[in-house]
Amino acid sequence: MSEPSLEVIEKHLSELNVDESSPAIIRQKQLAAERLNKVKTKRDEEIRSIEEEHRLNFKRGELIQLHAGFVDECRQYIQSFLDQSMDWANIELAIELEKKKKGGNAIAKCIDLPLNLKENKIQLCLSDPNVAQEKNKRDISSLKSDSESSADSESSADSESDSNSDSDSDSDSDKRNNKENTKTRKNKNKEQNNGFPVMIDITISSFANARNYFDSMKAAESRQLKIEKGAGIAYKNAEKKIGQDLVKNIKKENAMALNKNERVKFWFEKFYWFTTSEGYLCLAGRDNLQNDMIYFKYFGDDDFFVSSEIEGSLKVFIKNPIKGESVPPSTILQAGVFAMSSSQAWNGKINTAAWVLHGSDVSKYDSKNNLLPPGTFEYLANKKFLPPAQLVMGFAFYCLVDSESTKIHANNRIHREREHGLIMSLSNEKRALNKLKVTNVKEKTCQNSLQPEETKDQIEEAGLGKTENSPSPSSSTSPSPSPSVGRGKKTKLKKMATKYADQDEEEKELRMKVLGSRKSKGKSQSPQKGLSPTKTESIESKEDMERKKRTHQQTIEGYLLDEQSSTDLATYFDTMDGLVPKPIKSDVIVDMVPVFAPWSTLQKFKYKAKIQPGLAKKGKCMNDIINYFTSRKMDNTRSDTDLDWPQEREIINTLRSNDLIGVFPINKMRLVLPQNKK
């Protein structure tokens, strides 16, 4: 790591006043230093490559001038084959055969194969006199060293005994012969590898070829001067850019550390949602249970229900704030596009149609008044099919403003409503379910009134304790004496009685089975003793189905008795007053709220991106969207509402793509950005 890199990084860190010992800051510091070193290394490599190119071109030009006559002979040699209209493959074959001959043509031996006759070029191996001189010097020095070693070996051989002299002389002579053979082979290889490869254009003379190399050498020199001259400026620009990225990344790390407690999501963000271009709220469940939740808690007779016959389509509930009025056709069409965006029509890129029903024509009960399974509805009228629509969606950000800005937008909305004489209110009233609500309330009241009578039997049967007047198990007529119950125990028994007051006999029996505190009664066990395993499994599956039905029924009753949904609907317009698609100069922005909606509903949004059917993953597309939003032109003066503002940019930089992809009901898509199609 170079010193300039460290100085720049330390300067930016000192301006931020951050804890440099934290792991996140150390990681960002290392990444910035690596980027700076890469910039410097890349510049040095470019200069070295240009210098090497300059040296080689100069050497090639000199060799062509030195062997000008031989180069022209090589050109004429190849041209003679071409004049005979010989096939290029046959030309290469002829040159290869000539090379294999012992006393072959010297010109053919200097031509490298394969030929590049398509561009009228051939490669020659031209001998370099400087390299030959160096080789001669090395050969002379090696011969001297060999002679010295042979003299030493002869003197050592004379000093040995006479009995071993013959064998030693034979071995020495063999060694010398082997050395001489290896020397000759090395010299031959050196002579063959003597040449320096030079590319020649056969259509021009040797001197013209040399001039081309000298011209390219001059061009390399001028390019090197430009790089060296602009290296300082380029390095400073890189330092500035890397420093800005370092500051941005560190601020993002700090913001993510400070904002660990994410904002509380609005009630409609639990579902898939969007608002149409006319301002109508559209909700869709993420699964069947959520569809039931929307129906029972937020859907009313004045609302509309939109879906499609295609597999995977969403069930979209349109909230109608104006009683007795129908919603605009464009709103229904947009809801239809939203419903089909998660279906097979999106994956198959099919333009198809959705259908719509009035809220009073949708029910969760069949003709026999039985509750339907989760996600299933009974349609009481004929479906009205919509015209086919093109599936074009979009991703956008609402700007969440502070309370003061929300009040301003709320006053403007109320003023517009009064001008047009509109009364806006969301309701979940369903006339068909009013009777069911009243019935549930009456049942609860009756159960509470019967608590004192039922409590004794339930506590006794559950084995929770006995009161003073409770009869013994063996006799139902004669009471048996029992010890008095303490004051604390009476309070405990009262709490237990209140807790288990709503239990019926069947539920109590099931709880006992789960707890394993006692066996089932004889009536329930005796028929199963002689049953086969298949019948036992069928009985258990029926019990599971009954248990699921009871659980579903209890969930629905909870929805009907929940008063929070009415509060959510009553405060919906106040909530939406704080969500601004394009903020004005007086707005104070505190956060961004993501939304996935039909493209036609997002035309007034400041931050939006078009999405079409495709094969890209939603995580990658979300990263591309954030990069696009954070790289656009920014207005630091906050005067142009169409340009990005610094406060908005800072908030978007703190967002994580994994927290945003939950708004997508689809997994594959194609992102379409201005001047850049993904």
From TrEMBL:
Keyword Cytoplasm belongs to the record: yes
Can you name a GO cellular component term?
RQC complex
Q: What are the record keywords, sorted?
A: Coiled coil, Cytoplasm
Question: Acidic residues composition bias: which ranges?
Answer: 149-171
**Keyword match Kinase:** no
Example GO biological process: ribosome-associated ubiquitin-dependent protein catabolic process
Q: What residue spans carry the Low complexity bias annotation?
A: 470-479, 523-532
- Cellular compartment(s): Cytoplasm
Record-annotated membrane-spanning stretches = none
Protein name (Swiss-Prot/TrEMBL): NFACT RNA-binding domain-containing protein
Please tell me the species this chain comes from: Candida oxycetoniae
Q: What does the record give as the organism's lineage?
A: Eukaryota, Fungi, Dikarya, Ascomycota, Saccharomycotina
